[in-house]
Amino acid sequence: MISQVFILSSKGDHLIYKDFRGEAGSDVVGIFYEKVTALTGDQPPVVMSHKDLHFVHVRQGGLYWVATTTADSSPFTIIEFLNRFTALVKDYCGSLSEKSVQMNFALIYELLDEVVDYGYIQTTSSDVLKNFIQTEAVSSRPFSLFDLSNVGLFGAETQQSKVAPSSAATRPIQSSREQGGKSEIFVDVIERMSVVIGTNGVLMKADVEGEIRVKCYMPSCSEMRIGLNEEFSIGKSQLRGYGAAVRVDECSFHQAVRLDEFDSHRILRLCPSQGEQTVMQYQLSDDLPSAPPFRLFPTIERDSGGRLLMYLKLRCDLPPKSAAINVCATIPVPKGSVSLSQELSSPDQSAELKLQNRAVDWKIPRFPGGTQLSALFKLEVPGLSSASMLEVGPVGLSFELPKLTVTGLQIRFLRLSPIQPGPSQRWVRYVTHSDSYTIRI
Amino acid sequence: MLDSNKDSLKLEAMKRIVAMIARGKNASDLFPAVVKNVACKNIEVKKLVYVYLVRYAEEQQDLALLSISTFQRGLKDPNQLIRASALRVLSSIRVTIIVPIMMLAIKEAASDMSPYVRKTAAHAIPKLYSLDPEQKDQLIEVIEKLLADKTTLVAGSVVMAFEEVCPERIDLIHKNYRKLCNLLIDVEEWGQVVIINMLTRYARTQFLNPNINEGSGGDKTFYGSDEDEDEDEEEKEKNPYVMDPDHRLLLRNTKPLLQSRNAAVVMAVAQLYFHLAPKAEVGVIAKALVRLLRSHSEVQYVVLQNVATMTIKRRGMFEPYLKSFYIRSTDPTQIKVLKLEVLTNLANETNISTILREFQTYIKSMDKDFVAATIQAIGRCATNIGEVRDTCLNGLVQLLSNRDELVVAESVVVIKKLLQMQPEKHSDIIKHMAKLTDNIQVPMARASILWLIGEYCEHVPKIAPDVLRKMAKSFTNEEDIVKLQIINLAAKLYLTNSKQTKLLTQYVLNLAKYDQNYDIRDRARFIRQLIVPTEKSGALSKYAKKLFLALKPAPVLESPFKDRDHFQLGSLSHLLNAKAGGYQELPDWPEAAPDPSVRNVEVKDSVRAVGTVTFRDTGGLWDLQGPQKVEGKSDSASGSESGSGSEESGSGSESVESEEGSESEEEEEDEEEKNKKKKKKELKKPVQETLTILHLVLCLQTIAPSSALKNYELLHRITGEGLSVEYCFSRQPFSPDANMVAVQMQFTNNATSDTKNLHMEDVKLQSGMRVKEFPEIGDINVAVIKNKRSRSCSKFFVSIQPPVGELMRPIFLTENEFKKEQGQLMGMNEITEKLTLDAKCRNEHAIVQRVTTAANLSRVPCGSDKECRFAGRTVTSSSLVLVTVATKEEGAAQLTVNCEKMLIGTMLVKDILLALTQ
After folding, report:
1. What is the pLDDT of residue A138?
2. Rounded distance, CA A10 to CA A134, Å?
3. Would you state the pLDDT for residue B86?
4. Which residues in chain B (161-190) have CB-CB distances under 8 A to chain A?
């Protein structure tokens, strides 16, 4: 049961406010914002309470999405509802930002009205909602994209020339109905990897979570067939053939996916509804099909002048054709480090000492596969002792691998049947993000 | 603009108004102008007006009444969407005067044709209830009616209404329990959450605790894996706990929902299993919950809270997933801390070394709070697991040389707690810590060290006075908490070693006497009176030593989640660790099981209530008196009642064969029999309606036979005196035991009189050669059917003969795998036969059909069109069965069967040969 739902900008402006049950006063928004801002730390607790009222919030797109409740309802329901609601707003408005929400007040209010009735969640499926929101299609003002044209689909910058402009996928689903002609389908294979490499270079833990997302702008729903690699296998026992298998441990599908051909031909059949949906999610744990993409060879010593010398060699083990972009290595340094002098192997890299985090950030905009980069950092640490050498902690790496999936999952084909009249465009994109890539030293 | 004639202008105006509302601005003064437009034809304008009305109707009641008539008209609209939205808005207008109108509208909508409107009616119920609680009785009637509704759309909403209006009326659920369980999987996800939560509560009141018989240590469970509803009281005594079949039904039907995409559903099922399932089965939820850890951090946070509680009670459940709780550098602090909590709870003798190694790396983290929490966690591990205590202690002592004060301070505090458990052994550690007092600045840590030294001063007799001397020097600059401990230390030393420390103590006490803090002054005064012998001091000073140096019990480091489990998991109260408004305590298990028959009888009742059609049984009514005795009885009762009511129906009415099913599952033999009754009925009124009603009942419990299956006769109608029985192999996996083959039986009564109390008696497994040769045959029972009639009892001896092809289940292989497996099953295991195909069976399709009818195999994809390949596994022994049919010219063909069990192979060859040649 939800008493109120409101959306706040990060500055605390009211964007949307809707009261469903009239149980709580109207100043709750202010109370919430005070509570949120009063807290320090990277993330305020999900549930906060004020007298009898409980606030549940999530942060997405730089906005606070808050629901309040007075009764004891499952917190999961509310969190899940808020997440779904943000997804819906994203579908209907194209993107999640303060601006897009502001421009679509009426539409979001309508959505909220349909999704929640007297605090009870009715439905969040965009297929069902289509029937009700249809009348509002015109009311969503054509949403201008010019200010977003440089933002990628998932906030990721891509540097591919062949690919559609990244803003292409951030438009409201309903405008496609007006424009009519342009029907497009975007399929993204996104993987996130978390890896821990031990001090001796041994892979201690590896986890890959992947998902296939489909964003569909088809005016009419036709059937879509997504073919995955034939060698795709699930679980350890089920190895197919002798070739290099693409293996995952576990996978789950969207409920709309029909799997009659999955067992035999690894084909997913679905009728995508408009908007974005996650068709398939899969996990692979403790086993990477190839070597981990980065290795680090550190040498850390104390020089005669009492400075800390860190000589780091970073090797990228990707296939030579691919490259990692936006690589950033975070090297924790001893407390009390004062200054940093650096020798980097190429000019486009940069390094910086962040005193607040006690870490050196080494940034590499582009890192082609099969190459090796090195850096020498000299740190001025007053009162350096051998104990503080131990404080040079595990190195965290964040990066993005475009056009590559670590598991090797590929989309063989993407077919629509019946064939669409008029031009239809299909886009497929692969990307691997680092979730947490830690190298212990 | 609102007065304009043009819709577009009106629309624009309404949009602006709605935007004002959305921003939280007051737009109420426009009310009259807006209300006028409620009758507007344009649906977009109309919707926005509705939005406006719902928001402001309460403030301007009189004007709002103007719009009511429009909604009343809308309620009769042919379009279901308009009916629904009219009802929705009508019920959202919070004006007390219209309560009767709302009541009427809800009642009407509850019997609307469209399920969508009925759903809206269900949603309207809580609204009306909150507006006027006096309508409760009438609303409960509506809820009762809607609960009987069979569409999935309505189920979720009506349970929401039930929970809000009358959660205490658990009796309303009885008759709908099974239906809800069965519909559950098709209900939309938000409804699922509510229903599952409601059913959890229901099950807690209606079923017995499945873990009731378990000793504290044993993991043994006594529940039968199957339904057992033996009413015999003596039986019950012998077999202490048997799970109610309805309880089992609930568990079985919710299990697939663990795969749901919706975290709320998964959590709801998880808490249901946690609260309701027998211990041995709770494990299934662990995997699902671990999966949730991969979603948004908000969800992670709540999941971890729940997991932390669960790990305290059922540690074994999450042990296999230990690695999933390792901390990632990108996790927010609160999640890190929760993960630590879980890891600590999971730690035991076997995995402690890995966990400690993990903890060691965590200590290097930059996140201060997290490091502190890690050190605490190490402390807790050390207290819980005796073997590693020394290792932990050493590790913590090493941390004392860390440069970070926070780390050191936290370690000192933890070491203090650990040392308290066995101080004798560790005087060197205390010495080491005494040295640290010079360096550590964090007051809490200093205080801890001082306390330790004071407490165990007899272990370190030389150092203690020295420390006190140093402290006395710096006394004035210390924090209050440290000062207090200095006084304490002084007092203790004075008592044990007064020679050396008398002066020092005096000095410290004097300093304290003039301290700014009254607490310290008080303490100094108190201690001085107590320990320093003066002429005035009373009896107390004699006991000073006892007072100060009494043995203090070691602190117990326990999880903050320890006491959380009295809240229902997954609830907001659990998350907050405080009662939230409206939290309903999960009821305790009942001492004795309430009558389970309430659910049975009422299912039939509801059927009768909805279907007003009465029917007469000319063919007699079959009743199964299997293990489900109660159900059988009620069956006959309701059947005969309705039958007698229509005695005078004309003979001109249509006769229809319809089925009513009831399932009987036998537990002693672990064999499930799907029994079906066929009734011949003469129907007086619309045939279709009865059919659908009966069909629904059927769907609840039986699997409809598929036409493709071959039926075998068990009892001919002449030998069976009118009763004929057919059976077939349903080829559906038999859920209670994967190594069993399901047999579906169909009973038809062709006689003129009722046959009652049909049951199996004396079911024997066939013994002898066949069992030895084919272990699979052991699954199939040979049944004796006893047929009790009103005048006589008849017994028929029947036996079920399973063809060998039914004793396997299909498996999926690729062509390569097939070839590989075939290569391993050569020689003795391969049987090849040449044959000439039947004239009708020359094409591939026909071959595939015939082979799959003869044996339960699945086709293997194959490159050439001359060959058809099939694969399967025998049910009990899981040995591979591979069949290849290679066709040649003019109907010649070659059949190859590869099977590890040669006997099965030969029999299968015969069967398939027969199927292909005839």
Report:
1. 35
2. 31
3. 84
4. 164, 188, 190
